[in-house]
User: Fold Anaerobic ribonucleoside triphosphate reductase (N-terminal region) from Arcobacter aquimarinus.
Amino acid sequence: MTNQELLEKNSQKRTKCIIYTRVMGYHRPIESFNIGKKGEHKQRVKFTESKTNL
Assistant:
């Protein structure tokens, strides 16, 4: 069974995930963005801060 088939089969059991991002000092759900802001968000470069010993 493919991943897509598993997702469709279990769609009733899934919980909606809301992704928040920080905008101008406060957190806001991405789903409330307009089309332009959603496009901006997709183009953002994500990074992972490395853990180094100080």
